[in-house]
Each structure stands twice: as C-alpha cells, then as structure tokens.
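Long-time lurker, first post. I've been practising inverse folding by hand and with some scripts of my own, and I keep getting stuck on stretches where the structure tokens seem ambiguous. Below is the full token string for one chain I'm working on. Before anyone asks, I'm not after the true native sequence, just a reasonable design that respects the backbone. If someone could post their per-position residues I'd love to compare against what I wrote down in my notebook.
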C-alpha cells in the first residue's frame, strides 16, 4: 500500500498514513518516510498502535536515538531509557503536584526547539500520545523555514553570520525558576548560528526560541529584542498549526526547522500521558552516549543525576 501524505498547510506539516510503523520497515520505505519528514518538517500519524518498544524501534529509522535525561531522586515511569516522559503524571500514574506542574508547563508553553542548549543538537522528536485530556492539550508547531524565506531582505542581511547562545537555565528562569543571570553565566551553554541551512531540505531556517539567551557581539538588550522579534515573526498565524491528540496518535517534528510549544489544558485536572524519543542531528559531531548527563553534571546544582542504571543497560546492549 502506498504511503499517503496529506499536507496540513501549503508549505508545512502533513498527515501521513498507509504504512504500518509498528513493524520493521524495508530500506525503501524508511527512506521514503525520512524524505517526507525532511520536506514537511512536522508529520502527524494517527492511531499508530505503537508500544514503548516499537516507538523506540521506529525512531531509529531517523538516526541515533538519544538517552533521555533523568531527574535524580525521582523514579522514572518510562520502560525504555530512550523515552522522555512528557506527561503530567508521577510513577503511580497520579497527576503531579501543582507547583511542579505550574513551572514545567509554563516552560513548555514557550516556543522552543528541544535541546538547543546542547552543543550537539537534536533533530527529530517523536511524541506519542498514550492518554489525552478530554478537551485541548494540543501541541503547536511553527515553520522556521518559511518564516525565514519571507523575511525582508534587509533582515536576512542583518542576520547573516550572527550566532546566539542557548541555555536550559535561561529558559527555566523565564518560566519562573529563581536562577540569577550570574548563576546562569556559570552554567554550560551552547552557541549556534541564528540562521542555518537545514540539511534535510537544503533550505535556510531560523534557529531561535525559548532557550536562546544572547546574540554574540550584540548588546544584551538589543540581542534579546531581536530574539523576541524573530520568535514572534516565526509564530505568526500563517506559519503555525496545532495538533490535537487521541491515544495512539504521534507527531514527529524536526527541531532544526520548526519551533513547538505545549498547548493549553487544565493540567491539574486531566491526565495527559505523552512519551517522546529524540533523534540526534545526523550531522552532529560524535558525542558521548549519555551527553545530557555530562552537561547537567557540569552544571552543578541540577535536578539531574548521572543515569547510572540507564547507562549500564545501554552499554550492556551495545
Ligand atoms: C516536548 C514538548 C509538547 C507537548 O515533549 O518536547 O515540548 O505538547 N511537548 O507535550
Ligand atoms: Mn519540547
């Protein structure tokens, strides 16, 4: 059966069907799916039938699947070390406490590109819905390639060659965590170009979002004004859409040519069980298997632990 691609908008986003992704796929089918993803930036897969294990297995068609960062002192619900828990649930399946919901949700509802605070960036993210709230709880996506294409030439010229810093601790501060600028200065941050060529399509894309802190060589105020202006530009109505989920539905977004944000829902009332795998930028330089732990450990007083159990399991399997 041929793979069916139904565009969501003219240049961005497509619903894909006609292929059973719970089973191993031949090379040609894998290639076709990767090409569809590269072209459309976000793909939506309904009623996939994926389990934790087949979710991880399917993710591997896009490249190296990262180990998910783990919180220390907090047992993890996930059955696979590659699964990132994007739910509002604790290990017993109960809705987590209000304060952590408030800050976590606030951070997630800012437009961002996952892990842009890492030197080694993440490319594809595959977010699978296991349980959805009765109303709402979508993910919003924005097209940073078309947004770049449509910039006035004077702005394209201004952005050429600019680089920006990205910090996890900066976006947490914006969500309300009490980090000072000085504390953030002392923690690891990454530097990336503001405009880059998206390797999967050869098109240029903007690369700024909630983790972006300063433009190198620019006055702090001026840099932050420019960053905010660019994120606003990318998230105008003509570049965005929302995906609403039912259990089994999955979205795949390319972090290198899109922005995303969690949509509104009452997260103190409704369970929302979302699990994500993340695929490393295929062009990235070699990195440690567990590079998140390395970064968070270097950051000092962090909520993250060296994921010893996870690491042992992965090393044993490799
Ligand atoms: C993520 C994320 C948004 C959502 O998992 O990286 O931002 O809608 N999720 O859950
Ligand atoms: Mn995210």
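-- Answer (accepted) --
I ran through it position by position. Result:
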């Amino acid at each position: 059966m041929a793979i069916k691609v139904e565009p969501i908008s003219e240049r961005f986003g497509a619903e894909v069907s006609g292929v059973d992704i719970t089973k191993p796929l031949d090379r040609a089918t894998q290639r076709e799916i990767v090409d569809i993803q590269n072209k459309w930036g976000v793909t939506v897969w309904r009623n996939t039938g994926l389990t934790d294990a087949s979710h991880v297995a399917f993710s591997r068609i896009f490249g190296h699947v990262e180990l998910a960062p783990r919180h220390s002192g907090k047992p993890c619900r996930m059955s696979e070390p590659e699964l990132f828990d994007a739910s509002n649930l604790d290990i017993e399946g109960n809705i987590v406490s209000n304060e952590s919901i408030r800050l976590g949700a606030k951070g997630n509802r800012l437009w961002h590109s996952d892990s842009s605070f890492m030197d080694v960036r993440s490319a594809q993210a595959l977010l699978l819905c296991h349980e959805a709230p009765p109303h709402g709880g979508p993910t919003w996506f924005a097209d940073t390639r078309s947004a770049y294409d449509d910039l006035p030439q004077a702005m394209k010229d201004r952005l050429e060659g600019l680089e920006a810093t990205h910090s996890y601790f900066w976006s947490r501060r914006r969500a309300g965590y009490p980090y000072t600028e000085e504390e953030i200065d002392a923690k690891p941050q990454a530097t990336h170009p503001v405009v880059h060529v998206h390797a999967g399509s050869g098109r240029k894309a903007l690369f700024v979002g909630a983790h972006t802190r300063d433009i190198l060589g620019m006055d702090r105020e001026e840099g932050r004004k420019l960053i905010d202006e660019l994120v606003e530009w990318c998230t105008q109505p003509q570049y965005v859409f929302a995906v609403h989920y039912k259990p089994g539905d999955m979205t795949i977004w390319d972090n290198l040519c899109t922005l995303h944000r969690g949509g509104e829902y009452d997260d103190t009332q409704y369970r929302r069980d979302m699990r994500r795998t993340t695929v490393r930028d295929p062009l990235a330089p070699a990195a440690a298997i567990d590079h998140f732990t390395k970064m968070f450990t270097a950051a000092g007083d962090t909520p993250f632990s060296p994921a010893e159990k996870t690491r042992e399991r992965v090393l044993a399997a490799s």
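A couple of notes from the structure itself: The chain has one domain: 4-315. Confidence is low (pLDDT under 50) at residues 304-318. Happy to go over any region you disagree with.
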